[in-house]
Amino acid sequence: MSTSKRFVRGGARALTGLVITGAAAAGVLLLGTVQLPGVERAPHAVKVSTTQTGERSIVCAGAFAELGADPSRPDVAVPVGEASVVVSGDGELGTLSGGEGASASGARVLTGAAEASIAAAQSQKLSSASLRGATASACVEPVNEQWLVGGASTLGLSTTLSLGNASEVPATVQISVFDENGEIDAVQTSGVIVTPNSEQIVSLNGYAPNRERLAVRVTSTGAPVTASLGVARVDGIVPVGTSAVTRQLRPEQQLVIPGVANEDSHDHEEVPTDTGPADRFPVLVHAIAPGDAAGSATISAIDAKGVRTELGVIELEPRIVGALAVEAWPHDATAIVVDADVPVFAGAEGAANSGETHDFQWFAAAPTIPANTPTAAPVTPGGALIVANTGDREAEVTVAGGKEQQLKIAPGSAVVVPGEGSRTLTSTEPVHAGVRMIGSGSIAGYPIMPRAEHTGQLTVYTR
Fold first, then answer.
1. Segment 272-305, tens digit of pLDDT
2. Are 350 and 260 in contact (CB under 8 A)?
3. Three-state DSSP class for 365?
4. Exposed, middle or buried: residue 25 (CB in 10 Å: 0-12, 13-18, 19+)?
5. Does 10 score more than 90 pLDDT?
6. Phi and psi at residue 193, in whole multiples of 5°?
7. C-alpha angle 414-415-419 in degrees, rounded to nearest 5
8. How many CA atoms lie within 13 A of 46 on its CB side?
């Protein structure tokens, strides 16, 4: 091939390469500057139920624990007697052990399907040389954080904390105690171990002696737990009442405490004071703001006719238990309403007196029962439902189980619904409910606990 032909052919190849390179560069530039149509497909969401084959457990604290019942172990709380349990709904009752190093208390655990409507409550009457009174409390689901308001550790008062673990793994529990001065040094209460399927009873008098007001925060890791307080009072060597305290889950700016009463066989015998007459045993209201903000809480009483009586104001400092003594309780009142400008937990101590016989009860705030949601409402023997409507519209309430009852509850009122046993409550408006047992020198009560808010669903996004 001649030199000229080779030159022409090589030049053509070079020109072709330049054209291809230029076209590629232009394509890259075009892709970088021109918005081309794309194909988009949103992730497909699939909701999967996590409760179809699951179970839920509800734990009852068991027999009342007496501090110092064993002379050889004066700092140990020993369960006394046996508590009876009322169940609403279908579930299987079992018994928790006392746990390693603990005494068996007869704590019960109710197990049922995760989506089932089940509830339980327990009650016990105590009559001995060292304990006298009635106790009752709601059985509750294990959680990882809860609060209890009530009790004290001053002379003549003892307060114990019962911790239940219904799971198959141990729970490590942190107990934080608050009083009228703030949080108590928690070094001694860190790391309480509750073994699987057991209950552990802790004396708060040893951790927080000589405290006039108590609030307790219970948090757990490893497994969720249940918590309740037992409070006993003696005058010298004479027993003058017992109480159980049901836990609370969330602080709110409005709390409703159903069932509070101050019954006296002397028709509220009045005791002269500098400011006027007062009840022999005033109703007490304790409240704590668990956050960092100070505030105040207005305390009111309501009755079945919708009469609202303002009782006083509690000034609140962060994490300090504030108190109000109600010197003159409205005789027909059936519930307390706490309106605060910061979220709070609260409890109220009511009393029943007959001659020299006295009893008291720390009533806990009741969670909201949603509208049009059938809610299991077990009522212990001798008890009655108290249903409170603090909304703006009339609530039409149906109570089934036994003889069905239908009633209308006006806004701002709390009514007594007689009847005991396994009951179910349904309302057209959100309400709060509790149970009160009251007799001659005897009082006890607890809130109705609607099913805990479990989503029961897991959202899965497929590609």
1. 444 445 778 899 999 999 999 999 999 999 999 9
2. yes
3. coil
4. exposed
5. no
6. -95, 125
7. 140
8. 6
Q: Where are the beta strands (DSSP E) in 259-404?
A: 262-264, 270-273, 276-279, 283-288, 295-303, 308-316, 322-326, 333-354, 357-364, 375-376, 383-389, 395-400
Tokens of 235: 């005058």
Domains and CATH numbers, the chain: 58-247 (2.60.290.11)
Structure tokens at 237: 């060597």
Question: Pairing relation of β-strands 262-264 and 333-354?
Answer: parallel
**How far apart, in whole angstroms, are the C-alpha atoms of residue 456 and residue 50?**
5
Where does 81-118 show beta strands of DSSP type E? 84-88, 92-95, 108-113
Q: Are 24 and 434 in contact (CB under 8 A)?
A: no
Q: What is the spatial distance between Cα 222 and Cα 206, in angstroms, rounded to a whole number? A: 26
* pLDDT, position 273: 47
Short-list 388, 426, 390, CA closest to 405: 426
Residues 17-38 pLDDT 10s: 544 555 555 554 444 554 545 5
- Cα three-residue angle 376-256-151, rounded to 5 degrees: 95
3-state secondary structure of 376: strand
Kind of pairing, strands 182-183 and 171-179? Answer: antiparallel
Strands 108-113 and 92-95, bridge-based pairing:
antiparallel
- Going by their DSSP bridges, the two strands 295-303 and 77-80 should be labelled as unpaired
In whole angstroms, what is the distance from residue 109 CA to residue 189 CA? 25
Closest CA to 254 of 97, 416, 366: 366
Q: What are the tokens at 457?
A: 């669903």
What pLDDT is recorded for position 13?
54
3-class SS of residue 351: strand
Task: Say what the pLDDT of residue 99 is.
Answer: 54
Does pLDDT of 435 surpass 50? yes
Token code pair at residue 245: 């305290």
pLDDT at res. 207: 82
Residue-wise pLDDT for 89-123, tens only, equals 888 898 887 655 444 678 999 998 888 889 999 99
The pTM for the full model equals 0.84
